[in-house]
Amino acid sequence: MALEDSLRAQLIKQFPADVLVLKDDFHKEYYACPTCKRVVAISNTKCMACDQALKWENIRVQEMEEKGKKKATLTFEVPADFVKSYCRKCPISYIAKHDKENMYECPLGMRNNCPLEIN
Ligand SMILES: [Zn+2]
């Protein structure tokens, strides 16, 4: 039975678990493996000590909230020939005048750094 238990434990560790934020004796925060509680290096996808798969989404959300920011996601349709930074084809772009010329502008101000993820 012991073998089965350890196999099960190995299997469970393949499912990413949220990294913990713990405090050391000096009240300094560090990131820890949720399974073995050992320190994990930032953005590691696996615990070096026990092979637990790690996920960082909640940590990132927490960090952004601490900075007074949250992440917002909006899903909308774009034409099939849309590519990133193709503001003319983007449904959220607007027309602004630049030196008397009309230009498609990005409402996020990210014209050259288009954050859209196309699926
Ligand atoms: Zn671990």
The tally of domains stands at 2
Q: Largest beta sheet, briefly?
A: 2 strands, parallel
> Kindly, what is the distance between the CA atoms of the first and last residues, rounded to a whole number of angstroms?
45 Å
Beta-strand fraction estimate: 15-25%
Our Rg estimate from Cα atoms comes to: 22 Å
Order the strands across the largest sheet as they lie in space.
1-4
List each distinct ligand once: zinc ion
Shape: elongated
How much helix is in the residues? Answer: 10-25%
> How many strand segments?
6
- Unreliable stretches (pLDDT < 50, length at least 5) are none
Pattern of helices and strands = HEEEEHEE
Structural class designation: alpha+beta
Oligomeric grouping of the chains: single chain
Mean pLDDT, to the nearest integer, reads 90
Number of helices: 2
